[in-house]
Amino acid sequence: MSKILIRGAKVLGGEPQDVLIDGETIAQVGAGLEAGDATVVEADGQILLPGLVDLHTHLREPGREDSETVLTGTKAAAVGGYTAVHAMANTFPVADTAGVVEQVWRLGRESGYCDVQPVGAVTVGLEGKQLAELGAMHDSAAGVKVFSDDGKCVDDAVIMRRALEYVKAFDGVVAQHAQEPRLTEGAQMNEGIVSAELGLGGWPAVAEESIIARDVLLAAHVGSRVHICHLSTAGSVEIVRWAKSKGWNVTAEVTPHHLLLTDELVRSYNPVYKVNPPLRTETDVMALREALADGTIDCVATDHAPHPHEDKDCEWAAAAMGMVGLETALSVVQQTMVETGLIDWAGVADRMSFRPAAIGRLDGHGRPVSAGEPANLTLVDPAYRGVVDPAGFASRSRNTPYEGRELPGRVTHTFLRGRATVVDGKLA
Questions:
Q1: What is the residue-wise DSSP string for 258-303?
Q2: How far apart are CA 259 and CA 66, in angstroms?
Q3: What value, to the nearest 5°, has the Cα angle with vertex 215 and ends 173 and 301?
């Protein structure tokens, strides 16, 4: 069994401590620990966090391996400091059966870079007409606990109610892509001043907010859990805040790009900024930051959406929606939340590890950095500043909105059950 001593790291941003890893477990945490026969990682000035957990990752396999594979996606996750990701169901074939989710789960186990927890589809083929094999996916080796038709909204209220009733039996959660389809027909970007000036079809905030309002009411009626994917508007924040004030079992996530970027960027007509839900206004961005800080929004989720070059390097209307995000998420959160004083590094651990693991009921992740816990850890150099160059990404795709932008922070080491998957910022 190998031993690793992380020396002088600020655990969750606190006082410097040493952390001894023995095999797959944290053996000791304290000051002045003896190295003995352990490999020493000098971590002066660095922040030690529990391994990050992403509730919303598109790994594209099976079916779109030209965009990403489970292997390349988990490599990207490890570089970004993640030790676990939830793989969305909009693959080809759709992950709506026990067989497909088990395939994704097994590919994750084989990768060795990051644990992969499949998300099962709510409806057959993501068509919104008939419930998928929710029980069979939960009972499979993959042990699915999160179900989502992400990419499409479960817009039929009866189907959504039945899904909430079904997953309640095993404490599952339905993660909703909140988008009223009739209100977004032909939509190309956020509906507002910029869309009017550019002549692009507008995507109104109410298309998101109306579905969230309906679904928090349904979840309360059923007594089940609903999770709101990639919340993006100030109005959505208020609805979730109201639902939580009622004590309803509602959680929500925000993406890094919705914490930083606005619809003003669409003036460039660069399809790299085309995403679902669309980039919103500065007012929305500020509301999302405040809501993440006060806990109304529970966690940060990347919505890592890789696409091949030809799907993004084209005219705006024809371009696919989505951005890669696993390798830059922590840097964006540092810039928007930590360096603005909205949260500290303990808050980062909460929003990017503890809470997403709890929402996904993911064992072994999102655990305290203390003796006896699994050694799923991320070491971050917060003083680092670097310009984003997608040519160096571990992801198979390059559709990042941050190319050429300077971002703070860098993951120097990632440990998955005590084994280094990233060393000095590079894949082990």
A1: HHH--GGGGGG--GGG--SSPP--HHHHHHHHHHHHHTSS-EE---
A2: 29
A3: 50
Q: For the chain, what's the residue count?
A: 428
- Can you tell me the distance from the alpha carbon of 162 to that of 145, in angstroms, rounded to the nearest whole number? 16
Kindly calculate the radius of gyration of the chain based on its CA atoms and give it in whole angstroms. 21
Which amino acid, residue 35? Answer: A
User: Which two tokens mark 217?
Assistant: 């009411």
Helix (H) or strand (E) holding 7: strand 3-11
What is the separation, in whole angstroms, between the first and last Cα of the chain?
A: 18
What is the distance between the alpha carbons of residues 202 and 281, in angstroms, rounded to a whole number? 13
Q: Are 291 and 297 in contact (CB under 8 A)?
A: yes
Contact 54, 230 (CB under 8 A): no
**CB neighbours of residue 347 within 10 Å:** 18
Give the separation between CA 69 and CA 107, rounded to whole angstroms.
9
Q: 233-263 burial by CB neighbour count: b if 16+ within 10 A, else e?
A: bbbbbbbbbebbeeebbbbbbbbbbbbbbbb
Angle at 352 between CA 347 and CA 356, to 5 degrees: 115
CB neighbour list of residue 193: distance below 8 Å, 6 or more residues apart: none
Q: Which residues of the chain have pLDDT under 50?
A: none
Q: 134-170, pLDDT tens digit by residue?
A: 999 999 999 999 999 999 999 999 999 999 999 999 9
State yes or no: is 303 an active-site residue: yes
CA dist 383 → 44, 87, 347 (Å): 11, 31, 18
pLDDT at 73: 98
217's CB contacts (< 8 A; 6+ apart) are none
Query: What's the sign of the alpha-carbon dihedral 413, 414, 418, 423?
Result: negative
Catalytic pick among 303, 313, 389, 424 = 303
CA distance 377 to 6: 10
**Distance of alpha carbon 161 from alpha carbon 125, whole angstroms:** 18
pLDDT in the model for residue 49? 98
3-state secondary structure at position 189 = strand
Under a CB-based contact definition with an 8 Å cutoff, are residues 323 and 83 in contact? no
Give CA 153 to chain center in angstroms. Answer: 18
Of the candidates 231, 202, 203, the residue with the CA atom closest to the CA atom of residue 216: 231
**Bridge partners, 11 (sequence order):** 48
Give the whole-angstrom CA distance, residue 172 versus residue 166.
Answer: 8
> For residue 1, what pLDDT is reported?
59
Helix axes 234-245, 205-222, angle to 10 degrees: 10
C-alpha dihedral over 243, 245, 251, 252, to 10 degrees? 80
How does DSSP classify residue 199? Answer: T
